[in-house]
Specification:
CATH superfamily of the largest domain in chain A: Butyryl-CoA Dehydrogenase, subunit A, domain 3
Structural class of chain A: alpha+beta
Largest sheet of chain A: 4 strands, mixed
Strand order of the largest sheet of chain A: 1-4-5-8
Largest sheet of chain B: 6 strands, mixed
Number of domains of chain B: 3
Distance between the termini of chain B: 8 Å
Strand content of chain A: 5-15%
Shape of chain A: globular
CATH class of the largest domain in chain B: Mainly Alpha
Helix content of chain A: 40-55%
Shape of chain B: globular
Number of strands of chain B: 11
Oligomer: heterotetramer
CATH superfamily of the largest domain in chain B: Butyryl-CoA Dehydrogenase, subunit A, domain 3
Number of helices of chain B: 12
Number of helices of chain A: 12
CATH architecture of the largest domain in chain B: Up-down Bundle
Radius of gyration of chain B: 21 Å
Low-confidence stretches of chain B: none
Mean pLDDT of chain A: 91
Order of helices and strands of chain B: HHHHHHEEEEEEEEEHEEHHHHH
Chain lengths: 405, 376, 405, 376
């Protein structure tokens, strides 16, 4: 723990101890069902209410929104405190703070650029978990190319009329608000300039959601349809035509959320240590699997890959060691990380022996079927936000300067 | 491999006929809607279809004529099972076939006469082998003890395929420090002995079965259980390999379909080499598996399996499981957002891959044993 | 050994014994230098004269050209005898019969379609090894797309005047004749129709060859330049404009050569057994490498791949087992085989331990550096005749029906 | 790895300066023509360049100040060696550095005072370790025997790097059943003791050296040879890893160059995903290796190496060797017909890959030892 401006390190380490102590006494008991690893896996009322209660507890105990303005439910404290709280929660593997679009995207955006009215209206409900937020960027058939968004928002006096549809809306069926990107000007010379950004109420008439069942069998996303939906013009964030800019700004916050600006741990990370746990408990050919040399060689390969992946974040802080391909680490982290996890989770199943056939819901399943579900859920990361194939193109073209397809 | 490699593949006209009719049958009876309709069902199969299969004589294909079979050899079932895999047609066929092989190979005349005719007529048998997650275990904690003329079982078996519909079980147990296979009829089980599992592959059914307290007569102990168990395991591996090969071909078809119809950035996505070339790799892996299963089907006979046959079965299982794991994984990825949904059939293949991988030993297990056969 | 039409199987097995016996007494002693594995590796006079002598011996003993017409130096016997002789020679791993373009391409073509004059002029020299033949199809910058051949042949009275250049000419610097594909009509509507096929003398004035040094450091190919080269019009094979057709027919013979129509084993095959030999002799971490479980797992993976590859040739004879993708085996064999060998040979080097750093010419090198050279030479097969990347396209498009790039 | 992973990477301003000057130096002194001009030369290096390196103080970079060094630690040589790899600049630098480390770590005060100043001034040392092809051997057949005050060596060492130009050798030998390292000066060798090897990597030089009959004094036996040998091997592995990483980056540059200039079927070939994506994979593999070598360079100190350092060195060597093997292989393939020629620089990288792979232990060897460190 290094010292922070104006804060004594003693204060920070005391605070850290306090968090750890709080966690020890407040971590909820095993609910008897497998908890989601990310906020994209909230597929049932049961899970939802459990997570809502947990987030409310974290917030009301002062460990969420610690750096948000005091007058809107935050703690008004330096960010370092939230970072410490997050670190401890991550270490202790408590459940996630699930309202991620609110905490990590909409909230920071409203704090930075919102009107007093917007702050007053939205912030507290985000922190308490009362108001769930969802995101409406992606559309069917357009993948992640935001430039080709088709959903229209037409100004009609004091309202906008929304028509179109969105896909991969996280918790679309539970959300109270959506950050919505829609086209207000279909004539704009550059297609990105025709977009506007809305804080849209999900209870508006004409909005319907259709839950998407994932390959895991669970839910967590919806398709969201807008049929002559009228929302107040006051839902427009910033100016008309600035939607693309605001969306890009919003995407920047994602990192902030992880880093603790909003607080709450959005992803329950798994690491190689978790995988090794399986290998330690399993028999293969009458011997402990962990003694099998082929398995050991495979595990070490994964450990080397993991180590290189984590270390890359530290190397990139030293420009001299990234001189030839300066943006290589930044642009390849998604591909490397998501593909590493895909292979690692698939491998976890090969370790389980006969038990790999079991699934979430079976009492005999290894770790409740966590790995089975995690392997399949992992495809959201190798497909969403630009498939691995597209990522490889991006790296080839933008890091190595190879020609486009 | 200082040995000269055995490279024979033969396929009789009869087998070709079976293959042709199996293909048609599976296609007709098990289109994707039929498959999906059964996912949440209790038994996981359509009993009308199963009865038709029985009527076609498939359940007796490899059984001796004297017991109601057509005595074509176990190799003749490979085209059947491959076709079933290709259409995800689930029935107790594989479970029953392996159990029947155990009785045919390990049973006395009397034991064969008692159970094989019923099997030919469609009675359902299944193997109860696992004490834990280890398909390669060489010992068992399921014990058979004796008191007077009665034998009593003690132990639970895991992941017994099609247990809930089985008429009888061939149970791996230990009697006085020796491995034994005993036949237990479903009627002998205690209430609640069967505890159904939740499987990642929703087309399959399995349960844990507690045999504790079941009492059997000596006539239920297979005459040559310990002797034929390794061969039965190899046959199990080969049947799973055949099914997995068919399923990998189905995954390939699904991918090719999508790649030749879906457009992105104005191009059919199959024109991108990053999708095209791995799809070719699926073909090559599947093709290799197919070659190896029909090689094994050529070598396998009704007698004790030769070393060449053992090599062929293990290679087939190792290759088929790898092929399907790869195909299922890529099938999901290459369908993009669509692949992430339950509605996309890629889901069926990636789940089947998890199921097939470990059944009767995973690829690493078989390669380890192949190493002893080929390198020492 | 199955019976052959009109030949008693006893005769064949006696013959087989005779070949084996002949081999036992006639196989040349180790010349003290590493012999080529294919005819594309004849890079020195030393190697050339050794192979020439060997081929002459095989032929004069009656084991080469056994099915060729008797009047032109052949044996006039049924092909089965040549096949048996080839099998035995392959098994005994005798040196290759190196004059492959003559034996496998030009010879069969001349026998099938040549004039009496051509038969008289060319056949015997091919068999004896006196007249080395080379192939002039590929051109610089055009890879293996024969349609874009630029070398011109203009008719001038009783001669053709050749201008242009060829690349990857096997033994171009040693050859007496070239099968040459050149453009006689640059106006032809379909570019393939403008090509003609020549049996060209390499000693014609204006032909120069420039040996190409391979990445192995050895030679074996030349670049061949034609500068106003005049050759007699009688060198034209068949009719003008039929070059493409004849070239395609010639390529068909390649298999025939292997199958024994011409005789002589053109490739000294290596198989997994050869690889296992290395693993048996090597120490790793103080133990015999063959006992290392990771190595064993890798070796078995290769053995499975090899087995599947060899078995595929037998499966393809059973159409019922190839119904869904009937041309899959045929079109994928090159990709599978050449890539298998590339990986297998690269792996052979990892088995060698410190010795993998040694090269051909070093007395301590494992098997004379055979594997080091073979790994590098193997790229001629994954690059030549359509790169592996192009092969994958061909399979994707012609077997699976995927769209073109 | 129940341990918390050590994730530190530090790089001082001094190291950054060394890196910057090393990059310039290697680029200037070792362009590809210079590299090729040395391929058939006797020593494999340009002595003018070597003398300049000595003048720059590189040979003393990590040596104690009292012995003429600048005491910056062995980690400071990593940017140097990576740069040398990147430009295939061959000199005895790596050999000398490892030998100097052996003396620095294992020698008494007197021994250090005797040899280190010479090394700082550019004397060439090298390790003589191998009895056979096994880098992982834990024993040696090279024996040291005693008669009175004299010690006599018996045995031949294989593939001693830069042997022909070495001023002295640090020889792994066994004395009374214990491992010992002894220093033998080149002048002590018999005629014909050095037998040069033909290497696949023509930028490198090595020889077998026969030490049989060489007589040494006890002062030539390193005080702590057995104790520091494992650390010296790890340092060797790390230096080879750094060089291989640089070479993989050079291979990548060469591929990128070709892919952005060569056209086929009317398109720059780098636009094909079947070439583009594996080239990205080269980048990622090389990048991982680079991360790991600088992590190891951060941890490594002059004292006994910690377990974290051992892990870092082994990971670096395993990753760098794999990266270069892959890069070299693909570099040849992606150059097409051109890649098949000696004129194409891809040839240099694929050959270097064969050389680097086994030096100081191959990836599988290091992973095996990592397994004990990380899994047990």
């Amino acid at each position: 723990m290094t010292e922070h401006q104006g804060i004594e390190s003693g204060e920070l380490s005391d605070f850290r101890k306090g968090v750890a102590d709080w966690i020890k006494h407040n971590t909820p008991a095993d609910p008897g069902f497998l908890l989601p690893q990310t906020f994209m896996e909230v597929g049932s009322e049961q899970v939802l209410s459990f997570l809502r209660e947990w987030q409310h507890k974290v917030w009301s105990s002062g460990y969420l929104g610690m750096a948000w303005p005091k007058e809107y439910g935050g703690g008004g404290m330096p960010r370092i405190f939230q970072q410490i709280a997050d670190e401890e929660m991550k270490k202790a593997r408590v459940p996630i703070c699930f309202n991620v679009i609110g905490l990590g995207w909409a909230g920071p955006l409203i704090i930075d650029t919102g009107t007093d009215f917007e702050k007053e209206t939205y912030l507290k409900g985000i922190l308490s978990g009362e108001d769930i937020w969802c995101q409406g960027f992606s559309e069917p058939n357009h993948g992640s190319d935001l430039g080709s968004i088709q959903t229209r928002a037409e100004r009609d006096d004091n309202e906008y009329i929304i028509n179109g549809s969105k896909i991969w809306t996280t918790m679309g069926n539970y959300a109270k608000y959506m950050i919505l990107l829609a086209r207000t000007d279909s004539q704009a010379e550059r297609r990105y300039n025709g977009l506007s950004f809305f804080l849209a109420p999900m209870d508006a008439k004409g909005i319907t959601t259709s839950p998407i069942q994932k390959l895991t069998g669970d839910y967590g996303f919806t398709e969201t349809f807008f049929d002559d939906v009228r929302i107040p013009a006051s839902c427009l964030m910033g100016e008309e035509g600035h939607g693309w800019r605001i969306a890009m700004q919003t995407l920047q916050y994602e990192r902030g959320a992880e880093a603790g600006a909003a607080g709450g741990v959005a992803i329950l990370s798994t690491v190689m240590n978790d995988l090794l746990r399986i290998a330690k408990d399993v028999q293969r050919d009458g011997e402990p699997l962990m003694q099998d040399p082929v398995t050991r060689d495979n595990l070490v390969k994964f450990l080397i890959e993991e180590q290189a992946l984590y270390l890359a974040e530290n190397r990139v802080k030293i420009p001299a060691l990234c001189a030839d391909y300066p943006n290589s680490v930044a642009l390849s982290t998604k591909l490397r990380g998501t593909e590493f996890f895909r292979r690692m989770r698939q491998y976890a199943l090969t370790l389980q022996g006969a038990s790999s056939a079991l699934y979430v819901g079976d009492e005999d399943a290894v770790e409740g079927g966590f790995w089975q579900r995690a392997y399949m859920n992992n495809f959201s990361t190798t497909i969403g936000g630009g498939t691995s194939q597209i990522q490889a193109n991006i790296i080839g073209e933008h890091v190595l300067g190879l020609p486009k397809d | 491999m200082t040995r000269t490699a055995n490279l024979s593949i033969e396929f009789s006209d009869e087998q070709a006929m079976i293959l042709a009719s199996a293909k048609d049958f599976c296609r007709d009876k098990s289109d994707i809607n039929a498959v999906r309709a059964l996912l949440k069902s209790d038994t996981g199969f359509n009993s009308d279809v199963w009865n038709e299969m029985i009527a076609l004589g498939w359940t007796g294909l490899y059984l001796p004529e004297q017991h109601g079979g057509s005595e074509m050899g176990i190799g003749a079932t490979i085209p059947l099972v491959e076709s079933m895999g290709r259409h995800l047609l689930s029935t107790p066929f594989i479970s029953s076939t392996i159990a029947a092989q155990a009785i045919m190979r390990g049973g006395s005349e009397e034991q064969q006469a008692k159970w094989l005719p019923a099997l030919a007529k469609g009675a359902i048998g299944t193997m109860a082998l696992l004490d834990n997650e280890d398909w390669g275990a060489t010992d068992t904690s399921c014990l058979l003890s004796t008191e007077g003329n009665n034998f009593t079982l003690q132990g639970k078996k895991l992941l017994v395929n099609d247990a809930a519909v089985a008429d009888f079980f061939v149970v791996l147990t230990k009697y006085q420090d020796s491995i034994a296979l005993v036949v237990v009829e479903a009627t002998q089980l205690a209430n609640n002995a069967i505890s159904n599992r939740t499987l990642v592959d929703e087309t399959k059914r399995a349960a844990n079965v507690d045999f504790t307290g079941v009492t059997i007569e000596s006539a239920a102990i297979l005459a040559k259980g310990a002797e034929i168990l390794p061969d039965v395991r190899l046959i199990g591996a080969l049947l799973i390999a055949a099914e997995a090969t068919g399923c990998a071909a189905a995954a390939l078809d699904t991918v090719v379909d999508y790649l030749t119809t879906r457009k992105q950035f104005g191009r059919l996505i199959g024109s991108y080499q990053s999708l095209k070339h791995p799809t070719v790799e699926i073909l090559i892996q599947m093709d290799s598996a197919r070659t190896l299963i029909y090689h094994a089907a050529t070598l396998i006979g009704d007698g004790k399996l030769s070393e060449d046959t053992e090599i062929a079965c293990r290679m087939a299982k190792a290759q088929a499981a790898e092929a399907l794991s790869f195909a299922g994984d890529r099938a999901v990825q290459f369908h993009g957002g669509m692949g992430f949904t339950y509605d996309c059939d890629a889901m069926l293949y990636i789940r089947r891959a998890q199921w097939s991988q470990h059944q009767y030993g995973d690829p690493q297990h078989h390669r380890k044993l192949l190493a002893s056969l080929l390198l020492d």
